[in-house]
Each structure stands twice: as structure tokens, then as C-alpha cells.
């Protein structure tokens, strides 16, 4: 038989009722809270607190918070007036039993409605993701068609210009041929007249003049001095083998080379064995292109679309840490805290070995996982991640302040934590 809690406390205003129920050492995960507009039950074995409320409340606008050894229930009154009592004062067991049964039925209906709402939301999200992908495909198809049309117009214009040039060349050749024939006929007639007139001496002078001009031209060609050939040679260029901008440290060379090798291998891995991915365009099968799309969606506040873009990129290549880290940031915005922890952990696993080149990425992934732990009230785990990030970036004032705040929460100096 459960033990009834009697050392609770309650206060009220004209519009709100606040109830504080002590947990008596019970863990947060073992507290069961049932709430309707007329009935409140808090069960943490072997203790039980129940209240048949004096007046009905607005259950949808009421809240319950569990933490720091106490359950704080905030009830929104339907009528703004002061209650005489917290609970109804009646000894009728049948009346109490009827109220409990009605409360249980309402709670079950509420759970059913919430389940249906989640299913509809999930269906809507899938539909939106599909419509988004179809929209991207249509845009890509239209872009390709525009490129084809532009190339076809360009080719048509070049063909028309080439045909026009061919026609002009043919006309010019015909004109040159006609002029040559006319010149030949004129020259023939002139020669005939000269022969008839006996002008052989004039023709000889012309021939001599032409021969003399030709001889002078040949002499000038022989006198032209050609330039000497240019000298050849080889230019030797040497490059430093260092890749990282830091100074050479013999103890970190092997780790840096291992990190570079992993990065190079990650860019060449492509998981294309999914049948549903074979229909995607070439750009849509590029993880880098999908990552840029996800970054744009995140910047615009469309976190769900960003998650879809990062997820598709991860299916194509699971060896890029930034994809998991960025998707963890989206899950934090969407309050998918367990998924944020999983993605952050996967990113940290890929960011090995720890070298200066991936220090900033490790710090971001640690902070995101630590924030998810803290929002789940797992402050000890969250403190470890914040301390790991602070070790990487010890001069970050915001990180120092958040770490100290988590320490204060663990030590009990803040009663209502809200670490982001």
C-alpha cells in the first residue's frame, strides 16, 4: 500500500496555483505524474500524492517540473478567483472513485491524441522532405534544360554564321575569277595589238625591268640576318614537405600524417549501393554539395530540411565528421537531444587522432554534446564535455562562464537550471 504524502505545500494567485511535492530521495526517472483538469497524481514508490482539485484548471496550459528533490506543479486557473482550499473536502469514496476514473479516461484520451498528433507530424515531415527533394530535382531539371537550350541556340547561331561566311567566300571567288578572265582577255587583246604594231622593243624593255626588279628582291632576301636561337635551361624548384602551419614537432608528425590520410580517404569513399540513391542526379550524390545545402537551410532556420540534407550526405559518406556535428546542431534546435548526443559522439569518434587541424571541430562537437546532456539534466556528463572543450580553447570567456554555471548547478547553487 502506498504512503500518502502530506508534507506538501501550495500557494496561489488570482490566475495560478503552485504545488510543491517533496521527492524524499526518489530519482527523477522514477517519478510518474498524471494530470487532468480536476485531478493530480504524483507517484514515486512507495510514496503517492493525489489531489482532487477544488476548482477545474486548464490542463493544456499547466506544467510540472522535476528536479532538485522536488516536483513543482504550476496550474492555470480557468476562473480568476481565490480558492478556499486546494482539494475538495468530501468523504464520499464513490465520488472520489468516479473522479479518478474520469481523470484516467481523460489522460488516456490525451495520450492517444498526442500519439496521433506525433504520427501526423511525422507523416507531414516525410511529405515535406519528399516535396523538397522533388522541388530540387525539378529545379535541377529546369537548369539542365536551360543549358541545353542555350547551347542549341549558340550552335544554331554559329552554323548560320559559318554558312554566311561560306556564301560570301564563294561570291568573292566568283568575282575574282571573273576579274581574272577579264584581265586575261584585256591582256591578250593588248598583246595582239602590240604584235600587230611591231612594238617588240617595248616588250623587251618591260621584260628587262621585271628581271632587274626580281634580282634586287632576291639580293635583299639574302641580306636579311636571322636572329640566333634562344638559350635553353632548367629551373629547379623545391617545396617544403610540411602540411600543417605549426612548427615541426617530431612527437606529432605521425598523428598529423594519420589525420591527413583519414581525410583523404574520407573524400574518396562513396556508399552508392542504395537502390533509391541510383535515381539521384550527379550533384545530389555529392556529400559536399549536400553539406552546403544543409548549411544554407540551417542559416535560414529550416532545421528539418537541414537534417534531411545532412542525413542523405551521411548515407553517401559516413566518414566526414562535419556532417554528424552539423546534424547534431540541428537536433539541438529541434530538441531531439538523444539524437544530438549520438551525432556528436560519432563526430568525435571520427575526429581522431587529435591534432591542431581538427581542434576547433572537436571543441564544437564537445560543446554540442555537453549542451544536450545538460538539457537532459545529466550535468556531470555535460560538465566533462565542457571541460574537454575548455581544454582545447582555454581563453574562450563564454565557454568558461558556461562551465562554471554547470559546476554551480551540480553544487546546488542554482535551483532552476536552464543550461542551453
TrEMBL record:
A GO cellular-component term linked to this record: neuron projection
GO MF term set: nuclear estrogen receptor binding
Pfam families in the cross-refs: CS
GO BP term, pick one: outer dynein arm assembly
Keywords from the named record: Cell projection, Cytoplasm, Neurogenesis, Nucleus, Repeat, TPR repeat
Protein location: Cell projection, Neuron projection; Dynein axonemal particle; Nucleus
Domain CS: 3-87
Predominant location category: other
Gene3D superfamilies according to UniProt: 2.60.40.790, Tetratricopeptide repeat domain
Organism: Channa argus
Protein name: Dynein axonemal assembly factor 4
Superkingdom of this protein's organism: Eukaryota
Repeat (TPR) residue spans along the chain: 363-396
Record-linked PANTHER family: DYNEIN ASSEMBLY FACTOR 4, AXONEMAL, DYNEIN AXONEMAL ASSEMBLY FACTOR 4
Amino acid at each position: 500500500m502506498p504512503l500518502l504524502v502530506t508534507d506538501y505545500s501550495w500557494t496561489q494567485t488570482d490566475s495560478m496555483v503552485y504545488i510543491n511535492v517533496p521527492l524524499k530521495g526518489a530519482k527523477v526517472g522514477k517519478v510518474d505524474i498524471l494530470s487532468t483538469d480536476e485531478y493530480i497524481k504524483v507517484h514515486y514508490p512507495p510514496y503517492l500524492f493525489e489531489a482532487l482539485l477544488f476548482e477545474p484548471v486548464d490542463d493544456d496550459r499547466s506544467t510540472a517540473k522535476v528536479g532538485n528533490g522536488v516536483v513543482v506543479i504550476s496550474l492555470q486557473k480557468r476562473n480568476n478567483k481565490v480558492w478556499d482550499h486546494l482539494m475538495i473536502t468530501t468523504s464520499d469514496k464513490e465520488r472520489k472513485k468516479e473522479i479518478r476514473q474520469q481523470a484516467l479516461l481523460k489522460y488516456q484520451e490525451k495520450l492517444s491524441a498526442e500519439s496521433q498528433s506525433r504520427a501526423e507530424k511525422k507523416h507531414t515531415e516525410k511529405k515535406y522532405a519528399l516535396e523538397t527533394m522533388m522541388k530540387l530535382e525539378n529545379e535541377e531539371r529546369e537548369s539542365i534544360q536551360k543549358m541545353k537550350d542555350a547551347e542549341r541556340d549558340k550552335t544554331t547561331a554559329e552554323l548560320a554564321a559559318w554558312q554566311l561566311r561560306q556564301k560570301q567566300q564563294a561570291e568573292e571567288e566568283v568575282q575574282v575569277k571573273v576579274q581574272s578572265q577579264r584581265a586575261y582577255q584585256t591582256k591578250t587583246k593588248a598583246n595582239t595589238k602590240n604584235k600587230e604594231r611591231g612594238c617588240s622593243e617595248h616588250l623587251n624593255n618591260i621584260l628587262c625591268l621585271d628581271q632587274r626588279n626580281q634580282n634586287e628582291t632576291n639580293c635583299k632576301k639574302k641580306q636579311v640576318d636571322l636572329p640566333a636561337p634562344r638559350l635553353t635551361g632548367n629551373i629547379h624548384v623545391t617545396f617544403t614537405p610540411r602540411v600543417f602551419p605549426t612548427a615541426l614537432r617530431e612527437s606529432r608528425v605521425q598523428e598529423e600524417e594519420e589525420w591527413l590520410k583519414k581525410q583523404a580517404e574520407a573524400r574518396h569513399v562513396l556508399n552508392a549501393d542504395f537502390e533509391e540513391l541510383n535515381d539521384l542526379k550527379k550533384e545530389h550524390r555529392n556529400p559536399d554539395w549536400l553539406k552546403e545545402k544543409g548549411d544554407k537551410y540551417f542559416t535560414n532556420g529550416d532545421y528539418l530540411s537541414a537534417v534531411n540534407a545532412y542525413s542523405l550526405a551521411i548515407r553517401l559518406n559516413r566518414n566526414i565528421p562535419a556532417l554528424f556535428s552539423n546534424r547534431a546542431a540541428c537536433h539541438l534546435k529541434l530538441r531531439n537531444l538523444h539524437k544530438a548526443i549520438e551525432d556528436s559522439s560519432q563526430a568525435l569518434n571520427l575526429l581522431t587522432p587529435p591534432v591542431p587541424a581538427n581542434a576547433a571541430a572537436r571543441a564544437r562537437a564537445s560543446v554540442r554534446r555537453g549542451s544536450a546532456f545538460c538539457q537532459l539534466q545529466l550535468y556531470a556528463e555535460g560538465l566533462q564535455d565542457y571541460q574537454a572543450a575548455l581544454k582545447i580553447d582555454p581563453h574562450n570567456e563564454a565557454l568558461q562562464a558556461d562551465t562554471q554555471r554547470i559546476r554551480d548547478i551540480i553544487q546546488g547553487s542554482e535551483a532552476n537550471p536552464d543550461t542551453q
